[in-house]
């Protein structure tokens, strides 16, 4: 499904990585690891099509993502390390608007259900600015419950989450993989996810 072929990344005058290769089939998870500044976020942004590799090619089902454009974006959910929530909008509005921007219009009821699942029942009408960091992260991650995409690209999804929320997200990741989804994620911590294939990519 997703292949990286001889990928290289240059930022400013630094080459962050080169000759990165991987191939992910349905049900596979790639965990990208490496020290701060090694290029994990840069790689994820490339895989989303938000930036171009300095060399190499990213293929989705055998076709370069450069030539797929909108068709590729419709298959991808990206949740960055900054949650991307809007402070002055309510929790409910944040989820509905971020979903709509990603191409999934959801009703207020669907959003409420997803937020309840994420442990945010009763907070739907609060502006996001009054939430804790972990609660903001939950709002961002609630998108995983309402999207219908094959490829999830997640930058540090577990940061700021408590033990229960980490378990919840790990459960969601597992379900996605069991359904034949593909996940690329960065995390500095160990993850407990059972999958047909879990690969690690270490950036230096
Ligand atoms: N547009 C840019 N111009 C110059 N340097 C950049 C640019 N974008 C990123 N960098 C640099 O590239 C390096 C890698 O950044 P990146 O965010 O990919 O690292 P990371 O591995 O995700 O780090 P962390 O673990 O701290 O999140 C950093 O030194 C960063 O400052």
Question: What report would you give on this structure?
Answer:
With 204 residues, the protein is α/β, with parallel strands linked by helices. 32% of the residues lie in helices and 27% in strands. It contains eight helices and nine strands. Strands 6-7-8-3-9 form a five-stranded parallel sheet, with helices on both faces. It has a four-stranded antiparallel sheet with strand order 2-1-4-5. The longest helix is centred in the C-terminal third of the chain and has 16 residues, at 163-178. The radius of gyration is 17 Å and the shape is globular. The protein starts with a strand and ends with a strand. The mean pLDDT is 94. Residues 11-12, 16, 34, 36-42 line the site of adenosine-5'-triphosphate.
Q: What would the keywords be for this entry?
A:
204 residues; alpha/beta; four-stranded antiparallel sheet; 8 helices; binds adenosine-5'-triphosphate
The global form is globular
Strand tally = 9
Structural class: alpha/beta
Share in helix: 25-40%
Strand line-up across the major sheet: 6-7-8-3-9
CATH structural fold name: Rossmann fold
Strand percentage: 25-35%
Spell out the helices and strands N to C.
EEEHEEHHEHHHHEHEE
Total of helices: 8
Q: Calculate the mean pLDDT score and round it.
A: 94
Number of domains: 1
Return the CATH class: Alpha Beta
> Could you name the CATH homologous superfamily?
P-loop containing nucleotide triphosphate hydrolases
Computed over alpha carbons, the radius of gyration is 17 Å
Report the biggest beta sheet as strand number plus sense, adding barrel if it closes: 5 strands, parallel
Query: What CATH architecture would you give?
Result: 3-Layer(aba) Sandwich
- Low-confidence stretches are none
| Distance between the ends | 26 Å
Ligands in the model, by name, code or SMILES, are: adenosine-5'-triphosphate
GO biological process, one term: cytochrome complex assembly
Organism: Nitrosomonas ureae
Domain ABC transporter: 2-203
Protein name: Heme exporter protein A
